[in-house]
Amino acid sequence: MPLPRPSQTLKIGLLGGSFNPAHAGHLEISLAAIEHLKLNAVWWLVTPGNPLKDETLYAPYEERLFKARTLVHNASIVVSDFEERRGIQYTVETLSQLKEINPEAHFVWLMGADSFADFHRWKDWRRIAGMAPMAIFNRPEYEQAALSGAAATALAGARVAPEAASELAGRPPPAWVYIEDTNNPSSSTEIRKTDNARRDRQ
User: In what order do the strands lie in the sheet with 41-46?
Assistant: First the structure.
C-alpha cells in the first residue's frame, strides 16, 4: 500500500516493527503520539525482518500485514508495506528514503521503552537520532532500562520535557521525549506464547 503524500503542514509519526502480531499496545502508542505530539497521522511500517530478532519466529509477512490492518480502525493510522516493497531492512535506510520522498514532511520516529533500551544496538543509531526527532513511550517494567541505557545517556542533552512534546516534530534533531502515561502490557512475544500453548492443547 503506497503511503499518502503529506502536505507541507503534516506531522507524521513513524512506528516501525515486525508487528508479530500487532496488538493493543501498538494502538495505545499511536493514539498517544497523535495526542501528545499533535500529529496528523501515524504510519505503521511493517518490517520484513529485524536483524536483532530470530526470523524463524516470524509469521508470514502478508499475515502480519493483514492482522495489523484488521486491528486498525482509525483513519489517522496507516499500515504500510513500504519496507517490504523497497527491500529495506534497517531503520536508517527507511528514514533516509522517506525523507527523500517527502522532503516537506515533519517525521517523528516512535518507539516503546523496550526498543529504546536496545537502541544503541541498531545500525547507525546515532545517525538515526540525527535524522528525526524521537518519541519514546513507557512500557511496563522498561522505564528504568530505557532511561538509564546507552542511548538515553548519550542523548541526554537532547531530551525534551513532556510539556513541550507538541513542539517535537518541528525541532531539529537530535531531540527526544519520554511519554510516561502509556502502560499497556501487551507483548507480541507473550501473545505468540499464548497462541502456541493453545494450539498445543488442541
Answer: 77-80, 41-46, 11-17, 106-112, 134-137, 176-179, 159-160
Axis crossing angle, helix 61-71 with helix 24-37, rounded to the nearest 10: 60
Residue 96: C-alpha distances to residues 85, 90, 166, 202 (Å) = 15, 10, 24, 46
d(CA 157, CA 124) in angstroms, rounded, equals: 19
- At residue 180, φ and ψ (nearest 5 deg) are -90, -20
- Domain ranges across the chain: 11-201
3-state SS, residue 177: strand
> pLDDT tens, 109-118?
999 999 999 9
Bridge partners (DSSP) listed for residue 179: 137
* 135 touches 109 (CB < 8 A): yes
Cα separation, 138 vs 141, in Å, equals: 9
What is the rounded distance in angstroms from the CA atom of residue 84 to the CA atom of residue 18? Answer: 11
**CATH class of residue range 11-201:** alpha beta
- Please write the tens of the pLDDT for every residue from 88-127: 999 999 999 999 999 999 999 999 999 999 999 999 999 9
